[in-house]
Amino acid sequence: MFKLFFYTGLYLQVLVVFLLTYFLTAGAAYWLLYINKKERLRGRKIQDREAKKQAIYREIKCSVISMLVLALFSLPVVICYQNGYTVLYSTIMPRGWIYFFGSIVICILINDTYFYWLHRFMHLKAVFPLVHKTHHLSKTPTPWAIYSFSPVETFIDFAIFPLLIFFVPLHIVAIGIVIGYNHFMNLGGHFGFEFVPVKWHRHWLFRYGLSVTHHDMHHSKVNCNYGLYFNIWDRLMRTNHRDYEATLQKMEDKIKNQKIHAYANDQRKNSCSEIHQ
């Protein structure tokens, strides 16, 4: 009975961490982009259509269910860590700082590869309706959609992290950075507003990074743009949408036009105030 209470309490602690992280970060992003700065950022909005309230409620409901599953999924991992059954370590030495930072980069690359091929698997006709359809109900995604998955997808999406924890020696801070990076990249991909400078995608190095537009097009076009962090696998496998570059150019023009209009409006307001004075 004591163990039952202990594990229940531990589960609730893990769940609270997930829920707080979700509601604080997704809520802050939604308030900033869709309420507080909505008009100012209109030129950066990727899709002209707006997400309906019912869709947002669904995203939140499905994300909360995912948190319940994820907390349950994480519980045995936490227990194993507490009992020393993982390969996580807590002191920098003897592996050193080079390994510390290198392990973070390697884990991010592993997860990017894992997700790309898993993502393509989930888009197979026989698999999609059973696993991935829930996430694609968000045609116009918002920050609330970051964990809007089916329970099965939640499990397989995050299965990579226990694998890393049990088989790759990682500093506890390093795995925290990898998980945090995953969360905020996922959040950014569902902003619905483009903030990555388009000119970066013409640079020989930065062109392998992802824009918000890239994942937004995955939601609106479906069978394309499968990458998570980078545009490496999509370029190698030629799964970028054929209009991706053109859409980026349109976004750049749209952002420039908004800046010109905003500047003209500011000048007009300043002229009017000078006349009244």
List the topology elements:
Blueprint: H1 2-36, H2 53-82, E1 88-89, H3 96-122, H4 128-131, H5 151-158, H6 160-167, E2 170-171, H7 172-189, H8 212-221, H9 232-236, H10 244-276
Parallel strand pairs: 1-2
The fraction of residues assigned to DSSP E strands is under 5%
Overall shape: it is globular
| Poorly predicted ranges | none
The ordered H/E elements are HHEHHHHEHHHH
| Strand element count | 2
Structural class: mainly alpha
Descriptive overview:
The chain is mainly α and 277 residues long. The chain has one domain (2-276). 64% of the residues lie in helices and 1% in strands. The chain has ten helices and two strands; from the N terminus they run H-H-E-H-H-H-H-E-H-H-H-H. The protein has a two-stranded parallel ribbon. The longest helix has 35 residues, at 2-36. The N and C termini lie far apart (78 Å).
Short account of what is shown:
With 277 residues, the chain is mainly alpha-helical. It is 64% helix and 1% strand. The chain has one domain.
Summarize this structure as a short list of keywords or feature phrases.
mainly alpha; globular
